[in-house]
Amino acid sequence: MALLRSRVPTRSSESTDSSALLVVMQVSSKENANKRTGKWIRRCGIRTLVFLSVVFYYIRNIVSGGQNSITSSDNKTHTSSVVKAPMGGIVYGAKSKGDDTARYVMEAIQTGFRHIATGGFHFEYNESGVGQGWKESGVPRNELYLQTLFLSQTTRDYNDQNCHLETVCQSLAGIAIVDQVKVSIMSSLHNLQTDYIDSVLVHNFRAKLQPYEETLTAWRVLEDYVDKGVIRHLGIVSVHDKEYLTKLYSDARIKPTIIQNRFHANRSYDVNLRSTFKEMGLQNQLFWILTGSAGGKVKNNDVVKDLAIKKGVSPQVLLYSFTMEIGGAPLIGCKSQDHMKEDVEALVNNKLVWSTTELAQMAGVLNKGLIQ
Question: What is the pTM of this model?
Fold first, then answer.
């Protein structure tokens, strides 16, 4: 076994003309139809276009017998009584899987992963591949936890290659943050082939935080989707600033449920924030576990080797298990089915048991402050 596995890393009570909705969502490939659509968009503006597209999405979902959403007389959307999957102790990360995303996601689910993380307007994700993958897995939607991202257009990782709603996606440049959120959620629902999303995380690029007011504005829109049952949980990515996180937690009407941060020495493994995460009740998702500094430190370490042999696992699985013991939920992006099976067996089916001494030994390799 290799010592270090590679990890490649809406609403409205107004009546809407049906022909206008068809123009919004069903653009003809004929040239004259495209011209009419373009004129219609210029007359109405992107805000009206987004509004009508969202209305059409819900109308179509209801007419087609959407799995989980209904509308009541007060025009609010509610979820059905079907029991939905909880967050997973381990998360399959669909990043950097390209055109093979559907296959890897399907294999991960069939192996035993139930929590899948992707991103909509993120250049390293193929969100529609995740939708195809879970559909082909044979596992019912309510047994899966599907997570995606919202990215502002000013975020470095932003790219609209995942937006396949033709008319809307042709008019995205410079739209307001409120409309960016609405388009993002509508696009993710379409790509993931679902009528609800288990969690949406507001993305930051590494440690470069988006302006707080922009984040809060996006959060307010996302809260509305939670009210309607379209989104279950909210979270945020790459926040190592306690003041920023505390302010968001205080200002948010619907509190964050997930904080997704890198597990890296250059952020001190968030040693000084771990108690805050616990107090807020946040699931601490961790990425860069094998590819960052932690993976390098365990690569040829004798303490890690001895512990791994003792527990009958690879050093990589040992590291994943350690992060779970300190309150984390590791993002795992392996492509090998053997590694998927190894992860699920040791981290879910037959979780490793650690003694206090063993945890202290592992923390000593990385950062003693991880054990408090």
Answer: 0.82
